[in-house]
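Can't paste images in this forum, so I'm doing it all in text. The chain is below; anyone willing to post the predicted structure tokens underneath?
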Amino acid sequence: MHPAAKLQFERVVVEFGRWRALAEDDRPPAPAWWWGPAVEVRDIAQALPARWSARLGLPDGATYADGAGVLFHSLAGQVIQPWPYDFSRKVRSTDSDVRDLHAQPSDDSAFQP
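Text version of the structure:
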């Protein structure tokens, strides 16, 4: 396994553990950036370190492919993805400044040179 793939997967495993520790009602959608590291290890039959298996909710002896499956399952069926700065918490703001941050202009006049 390429060392970069292992490093990226480890980062995602740590994030997944933090995400899973949140109460389900407080969890944001799983972030799309988990997809890439999961794809990289989806066919690797090498055993995960025990602490990674535990973070992913897998038994000892689980493989990288098993871990990728957990990540794929967390992403399945989602229709929205969190913004990177919103990840790790569910945004419940009614503040107009937050809504306006992502608003699109209503006409093209704002883009005239």
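The chain has five helices and no strands. The mean pLDDT is 79.
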